[in-house]
Design goal:
Blueprint lengths: L13 H12 L2 H13 L3 H29 L3 H11 L7 H33 L8 H13 L1 H20 L1 H30 L3 H9 L8 H14 L6 H6 L8 H29 L10 H12 L3 H35 L3 H21 L14 H28 L2 H8 L3 H31 L1
The structure holds 4-fluoro-L-phenylalanine and sodium ion.
């Protein structure tokens, strides 16, 4: 029987899928966001909750997304629709795909702003701007950047164009080609920097901060942040992994592949934390400094090392590459849907979406200067995009996906697609039917209760 394939193309082999999905997962979430939200939420206790979420909620949902994508072989919106039809359900399930595509655009808008900062730092490091910089100067420099609308706009625009150029190339000539070049580069850079951070001393205090468990630090707010981050970091709840799954070869096993991706993502986050916190403490900086944490601490550390600007340069190149491969996956669900729906080529689809994302991104940039007074529930536009996606839309999307895969799709379809050993299938089935939906619903409910009671 001829294997059903996506009209958009297919990965050449299982490894390309693993690398592409890892490229989607490993991004600013690991290197920029994880350290600063860990700092804001008190360290070890937060990390533990986050790891539990990855294991009990993230991995089972990632399996479901790959499964749905590979069985549907289309954009998430249309794959959900077809699978619903196959299981004799209402096509309203495709609404989960819609929310996902929207979340992708919203995430991209603030993601691109931060990626723009990263590009600015790549250029600055190459220029030697940060040699011998102290922590006060580094803080000032970052603040100046945030106030400088034009510079922000330039780098944000550059990043949007970089991403669109790859996505417009399609699955094989765009996504796969970028993956094959960028992912090996990412691993090499990460390895160099890990070796560097381990020899740079002051390891103990940073290690302690990450892994010392103090339950008194935990609030329901921080549990919600940990849950939301487990979705964000694994690119779940919005269809990126589903879209990538739709290009996956049929023979490859889903379970083992997913575990590998989750493991790599977690490893990169922990390594990033271990690289950043020792520096924070060694320079008496505040671990709760927020989004600027990475942009202030790292230049300080690199600025003081002999040859540090070279490592600093490599580090920001690494972050830029990681952000690039992730942002590509943020656009893929919406682009694939537009191509299916309007029967257009990728370039016009990418251009239309690129303009939309770019405009939203300008509002995010403005949060740091001309729109800094615009606040909704105490949040700037930038914070709002982040909060609404990571803490609400992604977990909600994940909840729908878990209910859909666990309770709605016919069991034979699941078994056929997963082809797992009985034990592992049962473990996954239990997690997706009970553990994941209950955990997400309970954490939502408790937070609402705490807000209004
Ligand atoms: N997983 C990416 C990160 O950790 O930076 C961010 C992301 C990419 C989130 C793609 C969601 C997504 F669909
Ligand atoms: Na990640």
């Amino acid at each position: 029987m001829q294997e059903k394939l996506s009209i958009h193309g297919a990965w050449s082999n299982r490894w390309v899928f693993i690398l592409a999905a890892t490229g989607s997962a490993v991004g600013l979430g690991n290197i920029w966001k994880f350290p600063y939200i860990t700092g804001e939420n008190g360290g070890g206790a937060f990390v533990l909750v986050y790891l539990v979420c990855i294991l009990m909620v993230g991995i089972p949902i990632m399996v479901s997304e790959v499964l749905i994508g590979r069985r549907g072989r289309q954009s998430p919106i249309n794959s959900m629709k077809d699978l619903a039809v196959e299981s004799e359900l209402t096509t309203k399930w495709s609404l989960a795909g819609w929310m996902g595509a929207l979340a992708g655009v919203m995430i991209f808008s603030f993601y691109s702003v931060v990626a723009g900062w990263v590009l600015y730092y790549v250029a600055g490091m190459a220029n030697g701007d940060f040699i011998d910089i102290g922590s006060e100067m580094a803080g000032k420099r970052f603040e100046t950047l945030l106030g400088d609308f034009e510079t922000l706009l330039i780098w944000h625009s550059v990043f949007v164009i970089m991403v669109m150029a790859v996505v417009a190339g399609g699955v094989n000539k765009g996504l796969e080609r970028a993956t094959r070049i960028m992912m090996p580069a990412l691993f090499v850079l990460l390895f160099i920097l890990l070796a560097y951070s381990m020899t740079s001393g002051a390891f103990g205090q940073g290690f302690d901060f990450l892994f010392h468990f103090d339950p008194s630090q935990l609030t329901w707010d921080s549990v919600l942040v940990a849950l939301g981050h487990s979705f964000f970091t694994l690119s779940l709840g919005m269809g990126s992994i589903m879209a990538y799954g739709s290009y996956m070869p049929k023979k490859a096993s889903i379970g083992g592949t997913v575990v590998m991706i989750a493991l790599l993502d977690t490893l990169v986050a922990l390594v990033a934390g271990l690289a950043i916190f020792p520096i924070v403490f060694a320079n008496q900086l505040d671990p709760g400094a927020g989004p600027g944490l990475m942009f202030i601490t790292l230049p300080v550390a690199f600025g003081q090392m002999p040859g540090g600007h070279i490592f600093g340069f490599l580090f920001f190149v690494l972050i830029a590459v990681a952000a690039w491969t992730s942002a590509i996956s943020l656009m893929e669900p919406a682009v694939a849907w537009m191509v299916e729906k309007f029967k257009i080529k990728r370039l016009p689809a990418c251009t239309a979406l690129g303009v939309l994302v770019w405009a939203l991104g300008v509002a995010c940039l403005g949060s740091f200067n001309f729109m800094s007074d615009f606040k909704v529930a105490g949040m700037t536009f930038f914070d709002l995009m982040d909060f609404a996606t990571a803490n609400i839309m992604l977990p909600l999307g994940g909840l729908f996906i878990a209910i859909f895969a666990g309770w709605k799709v016919k069991q034979y379809a699941l078994q056929d697609e997963l082809a797992m050993q009985r034990f592992w299938f049962s473990a996954w089935y239990f997690a997706i039917r009970y553990v994941a939906p209950v955990a997400v619903a309970a954490i939502f409910a408790l937070n609402l209760y705490n807000k209004f009671a």
